[in-house]
# Entry
Amino acid sequence: MLRFCFWNPFHKKVIDSKDGGEKKAGEGSYPFWWTIDGFSAIANRRADTYYSSSFTACGFNWKLRLGLVLEEDGEKYVGLYLLNDDAASKGSEIKAIYRLFIYDQLRGEHIQKEGEDYFHSKSLDGCCFKVALNKFDSSKSGLLVNDRCVFGAQVLQAFAISKSDKEGIHESLSLNKDLTPRIYTWVFKDVSKSNVILQSEAFAAGGYNWRISLYPNLAIYKDFLGVFLVMDDAGSLASKTSVYVEFSLCLLDLDNAKHLKFRAKTVLSSGCFSWGWHKFLSWKEVQDPSRGFLRNDICIVEASVVILGVNTIA
# Structure
C-alpha cells in the first residue's frame, strides 16, 4: 500500500504583518517534510507523478513533486522538484532560493541540493534533485528503509518580481556634495635598495581606506618607478558596488620644488582596487641628483583623494 504523510515538525503560523505579525513574506521558513510509505509502488509503475500537499513558506504556497526520470543514457532516476502554487493563478513571477532534501535514515542526516529559480505560469517547477534509482533502492544508501523514504524542502527566500525588475539592469549613481580632497604624504625610505613593493600606511578619505604603492625599478616594471593608489578595503565592497574617485599622485622634488604630479578619475571596486602609473618616471631620472626626487635614498609621495560618488547596479 502506498501511503503519504505530510508534516512540518517545526511549523509556525504565518501571521500577516498588518496584525502585528511574527513573519513577513520573503523571510526564511522552516523545512517541510514528506514521508512516503510503500515507495516500491511508485518504482514499479515507473511513470506516475506524485504531489505532496500544499505548504506555505515565505508568504507563498508550494508543493513537492516526485517522479521517475528516464535520461537519454537509459538510466532511471528518482526526481524531486519544488512546485510553486501561486505563480500561475496570480499571473506573477516568483524568485526563490531553496533547498531540497532526501533523508538518509541509516546515518540520521540529509543529502541536499540548493536551487535558485524563477517560477511563473510557464515554469512552475524548480531544479530537479536526482538520485539514480539503483542507488536509491540500495540497502546501503539509507534513502529507502522498509519501503519508506522521506523528502523535504526549505524555502530560504522568496519574493514576487515586478515588471520593472525584468526590464533591464538598474544602475544608481550617488554623487557626493562634499568634494574636499584628503591629502596624505608618505616618506619612503631605502628606495633604491628595495626589491619589493613599498606601501604606505593606510589613510582615510571619503569613508574608505587607501594606501600608496611604490614599485622602485622592480622586474615587473623594469627601469621605471611605478606609483599607484590602492583602495585598501575594496574587498568589503558589495560585488556590484563601485567607487568613483578623483585623485592625484605627486612625487616631490626635494631640491627644486619642481614636483611631478599625475591626475586621474577612475572607478574602483572589489575586482579592480588600484590605479596608477607603472611608468610614472624612468628610474634613470629618479636617480638623477639634479632632479631632487631621490635624496638620501628617500622618496616622498603626496596623494590627494576625493570621492565623487558611489555606483550601485541592481
